Amino acid sequence: MQYIEMSKEELLTLKSELDARYTEAKAKGLKLDMSRGKPSASQLNVSLDMLDCINSSSDLKSENGTDCRNYGVLDGIDEAKKLMADMMNTTPEHIIVYGNASLNIMYDQISRAYTHGLLGSTPWCKLDKIKFLCPAPGYDRHFAITERFGFEMITIPMTENGPDMDMVEQYVNNDAAVKGIWCVPKYSNPQGYTYSDETVKRMAALKPAAEDFRLFWDNAYIIHDLYDDKKDEVLDIISECEKAGNPDMVFEFASTSKVSFPGSGIAAMATSVANIADVKKQLTVQTIGHDKINQLRHVRYFKDINGLKAHMKKHADAMRPKFEATLEVLEKELGGLGIGSWTKPNGGYFISFESMEGCAKAIVAKCKEAGVTLTGAGAAFPYGKDPKDSNIRIAPSFPTPEEMALAADLFALCVKLVSVEKILENK
Amino acid sequence: MQYIEMSKEELLTLKSELDARYTEAKAKGLKLDMSRGKPSASQLNVSLDMLDCINSSSDLKSENGTDCRNYGVLDGIDEAKKLMADMMNTTPEHIIVYGNASLNIMYDQISRAYTHGLLGSTPWCKLDKIKFLCPAPGYDRHFAITERFGFEMITIPMTENGPDMDMVEQYVNNDAAVKGIWCVPKYSNPQGYTYSDETVKRMAALKPAAEDFRLFWDNAYIIHDLYDDKKDEVLDIISECEKAGNPDMVFEFASTSKVSFPGSGIAAMATSVANIADVKKQLTVQTIGHDKINQLRHVRYFKDINGLKAHMKKHADAMRPKFEATLEVLEKELGGLGIGSWTKPNGGYFISFESMEGCAKAIVAKCKEAGVTLTGAGAAFPYGKDPKDSNIRIAPSFPTPEEMALAADLFALCVKLVSVEKILENK
Hints:
Two copies of one chain form a homodimer. The first copy, chain A, is of the alpha/beta class.
């Protein structure tokens, strides 16, 4: 029976049962963290052998003879470019290999646009108003960058096929103050949605009012499938933009943070040859080069895209049981109650939960009180404000499957409790 | 006999001898690079064992239990902070450990000041005019950053005791557009001069017209001594600024680029606690954290400051013969001729040569023609323009001592040849 159909008395009875269960649950003293898309320790073990790939007896020269121990090579050693290009479904001439984090590359592109402009256009710091489109729910750290620079963030609703493209086109093609859009095209954070071919093609075919409008295409989960037989595919944005006559319109990002080690991976940007030349003018002032030994470590370990993909299956094996345990509990505990819905992604790091309106903050607080930490409610929206207060991001990666089942159990209990209270308010 | 005292005939005879020797030298087909302060391959071997410090069996937890393989820790693991603090003669609360390059940290501070301002002051991008003081000869990559941001660079003459402090005080204390000064306080690039205690104290005691004026204190060679018994010492700028009531006035930089591996080292900034809080507000938007496994690798290998210093003796053993070979040739070939002078530093990576006025470019070109690459003449000055065209940076680190002797020999020959031609012009 859906909660909404219950009588006041039924609800009050239910509430007192749930209250009792909640008191019991609190007494268990859980301490579980589902707040961030952080791999678990056992998942990190999957990559441990990489640390043996480079030692004092290794040949530390790259394929073209560069001594990777010394200064130089601004944009990455050739074989690292090739590996990242293959991962990103593009070719090495589109690639710059950076340091350990794609977030830093994104910040860097925004900061460079702000200080120096893109391909000769006016630096954004000289403009009165900059706007960014923010498909939401989305990734809080994206929004943190644009908020920090004082850009106005415009929320674009997400659908199962990606951002609402009518709205995107409306803004981008008519307002020259709109300079960018944040996109996580595959297994989006937090919903796990993948942009449809139509969405990608419409993105690539935008006719921006601003010559320096860019797609900030964060392909964070490009090879992060959970299942062998159910893999989402997303079109290559670099070639789609080329085909649409907008070759310079996209900055695409990826990293091995969730492939090898978060913080000790390698990250890359893919973009047009013209953009690469433009970026390098700045990059050569910023650094002499990134960590080539770590680039070599990655290449020697993964060898090629097949090695990468085989490695990702091991990650999937670690992740799948956690997703399944969570989804199983959600279905069992909340299915048919009409008090929430959730996504069932084929990859990525998150499950997105939609509670009844006005309940997300209270659910997260109740979980916290009983020892289960979730991402702060609203975090997935610009300025941290979820207009409906309904979205909750569940990150199943860090706990074990057993812990995830426990955590999901508590989560479901809190959803029920807060929902009952909400419904009672209006009875 | 000094060249200047020779008769025209003597000079012409000399010139024809030198021409003949130069033709011979060219025929040797030398290929030597003294252009950058790059360690040699054998010097890099000194650090090779570091690559065995971390492997798949290592405990990858930091002292406080942090799993260094995972996300997190914005400002560096505690033991890396301690190591860098000890290296920089300060304490860990003043330290942020960054990624692989101090140049990048410097860029980052300038860029942050430009986009967001320092400690609440007006972002530099909102100001009409920014000026930077550039003690010269200095480090070309410093000047490249300030040039890229369009700051006016003001050349400050260097002395054996550091920058001309009368001039520095004059500018800094009276002109609010002056926002910074580039300093390499120990074994300056390229002269190898070390700031005297008086210079450091006067720097710390500046009374800037601009509240957001900063010393950009690049302590690149802080532990890079050549001799056990002749070590320059430079006062700790952090505590000197504190004592002078200017705790927030300095950003100090250092790295292990020339200690472990260039490109694969760790870099740090030291500054006041207030500045650190200010920086972290931005840094948390830029990144989740730097490479903690590499931080751990460094700490496990060097253990502590004593380990670092013992390691630097091995570097000194590799470097000293190159410096000595160069200085020996310069003394033997050019001593007493009155056509050039050069520095004899106790550490760092460079020897600075002063030719007769108007000769540096021609000397560098002549060397190049015969297969010896030097740093471009003028590179050590703002905008690449040496007003006297007399400064040449010699970087002895990359070639072997034998190659350095050969290269110095050719260099001396080119100095003679160009000087004779110059003197003849005026006879």
